[in-house]
Amino acid sequence: MLALTLELEIVRDLAVIMTIASAVTLLFYILRQPIVLGYLLVGILISPYTLPFSFIAQIDILKVFAELGIILLIFAIGIEFPIAKLHKISKASLGIAILEIMLLLIVGYLIGLAFNWSFFDAIFLAAALSISSTAIIIKVLEDYRILNQESSIIILGVSLIEDGIAVIMIASLQSLVTLGVIVPLDLLFSFLKMALFIGGTLLFGSLFIPKLIDRIIQLNKREITIISSLGLCFALSFLASLIGFSLAIGAFLAGVLVAESKSARLLIQSTEPLKEMFAALFFISMGALININLIYPFLLPTILITLASIGAKIFGVAFGVRLFGFKALTSIRAGLGMVARGEFSLIIVNLGQSLNIVSSFLFPLVGLVVTITTLLTPYLIRFGIELKKSHS
Questions:
Q1: Which one of 150, 167, 261, 373 has the minimum C-beta count within 10 Å?
Q2: What pLDDT sits at residue 18?
Q3: Rounded to an integer, what distance in angstroms lies between the CA atom of residue 382 and that of residue 140?
Q4: Does residue 1 belong to any structural domain of this protein?
Q5: Average pLDDT, rounded, for the chain
Q6: Is 64 within the bounds of a domain?
Q7: What angle do CA 319, 323, 324 make, to 5 degrees?
Q8: Is the sign of the CA dihedral 162, 168, 170, 172 positive or negative?
Q9: What is the mean pLDDT of residues 311-340?
Q10: Smallest Cα–Cα separation from 40: which of 19, 24, 55?
Q11: Residue 389 above 60 pLDDT?
């Protein structure tokens, strides 16, 4: 058989992925099921773990596309949230995030102790369970067209703050493993760095970015508008990653700055096709990483941990939202909407493995929790939407 070059392998892989994805997502549309689940199923079908052969050759390239999907998805969401709108939820979101993460850390650690796991297994499990997946949650909210609901705005604020806390948490875990203690000055430095980056970007960026975007749009050249806005998006994402934060934070800040321009709506329409394609590749790549062969050995602990983490997340978020004066219905919807675990959960456990401090079973177990919570998220959010107003 003729050996294919890397370029042809990538083209073949994309052809396979898009062909299977189009068939599966069409089926899910006909069945009125969430499209996100269709993407995950496509990933499982093409995964090297599912069949004795692999449909695709370049899994690493798929991961690159997935990162692009996260950036474009979060950038588009940021355009929906100008600074004035963001300011209204910032204080409440910070308080809610801290409250529910503390609860999840306690619950996760106690679960680890109940299974008689080591101290570090319990700590890393707790950290992994405490962080929700911004990308997964936002995609589902967007598919249901409820991004502008009060509960969705709260979810967005809390999940983005969680991303920042996750970065601080990773630094703390590294200190705990290497030094045996958590260094308070390191935590303070990470927090100040995050505050300076976010505050400085919004303060100085808002002085000239919106005007520059409006000037570019006045040229009436769509390609220049798209390239300029995406240039800002990727530049801030790279800068955020360079100083230790997630790509999502930089992409979101870029979107917020663009939202201050008078032509933000035009940019949303222009970048929509790119966002949809790469977002689909993100969810497909998540499905491709799922090793279904590991489900049986870890079935019982996975079910117990998943149920406990879902219950604690719903209660923690709902209680926090209610504590800050929001209606009961809003609180329940926010809690139901933040169940999905995702990329940061896997990053945290992978850190433990790279430091040779956690057991080998922890990564596949957390991977299964991520899978199950992702699969349940569309249905839980739909349940929240259908709750009657009488619950408020």
A1: 150
A2: 86
A3: 9
A4: no
A5: 82
A6: yes
A7: 125
A8: negative
A9: 93
A10: 24
A11: no
Report the greatest alpha carbon distance in the chain.
66
What's the chain's Rg over C-alpha atoms? 21
Record the tokens describing residue 7, joined without a space: 């370029």
Q: From residue 205, how far is each of 11, 197, 202, 236 by CA, in Å?
A: 38, 11, 5, 11
Q: Which domain holds residue 317?
A: 6-391
Q: Which residues, at least 6 apart from 110, have a Cβ–Cβ distance to it below 8 Å?
A: none
Q: What is the mean pLDDT of residues 299-325?
A: 92
CA dihedral 172, 173, 174, 178 (to 10 degrees): 110
Q: How confident is the model at residue 85 (pLDDT cuts 50, 70, 90)?
A: low
pLDDT of amino acid 98: 92
Cβ 140 vs Cβ 377: under 8 Å:
yes
Give the number of C-alpha atoms closer than 13 A to the C-alpha of residue 4, restricted to the C-beta side.
11
Residue 315 has pLDDT above 90, yes or no: yes
Burial of 181 (C-beta count, 10 Å sphere; 0-12/13-18/19+): exposed
By C-alpha distance, which of 97, 100, 118 is closest to 109? 118
Euclidean distance between CA atoms 380 and 386, whole angstroms: 10
What integer is the mean pLDDT of 324-339?
Answer: 92
Q: pLDDT category, 88, cuts 50, 70, 90?
A: low
* b/e sequence 122-159, b meaning 16+ C-beta within 10 Å: bbbbbbbbbbbbbbbbbbbbbebebbebbbbbbbbbbb
Residue 159 sits in a domain whose CATH number is: 1.20.1530.20
pLDDT given for residue 383 in this prediction: 92
Number of structural domains (the chain) is 1
Q: Residue 62: enclosing H or E segment and its boundaries?
A: helix 59-79
Enter the tokens of residue 315.
């209660």
Q: What global pTM score does this model have? A: 0.74
